[in-house]
Amino acid sequence: MNKPRLRSLQELKTLKRRLDEAARERRAQQAALAAREAAARRERELFATTVGPVTPLAPVARALLGRTPPEPVPLQRLRDEAAVLREALSDDFDVESLLDTDESLSWRRVGIGPDVVKKLRRGGWAIQAQLDLHGLRRDEARERLAGFLRDTARQGLRCVRIVHGKGNGSPGKQAVLKGKVHGWLVQKTEVLAFAQARAAEGGAGALVVLLGSPASASAG
Question: Pairing between strand 206-211 and 159-163?
Fold first, then answer.
């Protein structure tokens, strides 16, 4: 390949100047790189001098820990609690003689005035919780009711509704569960009174129940 020919002395001077500038730039880059390497070397030497000799730690045996096992399920305690709930409410309790002979077959504990039942029938207390037993078998309904009353009493609730159904789906259309619920409620000390719910709240298929401590309950 033929080299380019220079046309004049001026072009030769220009070329030489560019070559000199490129050489100076390379030397400057090399000097900067050398300065950085020297600075890094001095920092390493300073660190080694300051820290002094380093002795590696002896290896330590480590135990391999597995996953934390889940909390055990207290199956026996749950079974015991279920047994207590079943035994606490008797199916043989005769409640008919304790019910008031009004159209709603209401009930009130001794020391609770009759105006309490009237207030229940009128919806004088706001219903704070509800339990629907409709369609459940007797044993399941009994356990559900006992647990519901225990929990609501712990929460300090005052008025609840229990739905037991009207017995339309039972043989002979007899509300068997209704009578059982009456007997179960009378046996619970946290129950102060109950009355049939208003038509808008379930009518003959539900009860409105007043809860509280019998010792501290008053007529209003």
Answer: antiparallel
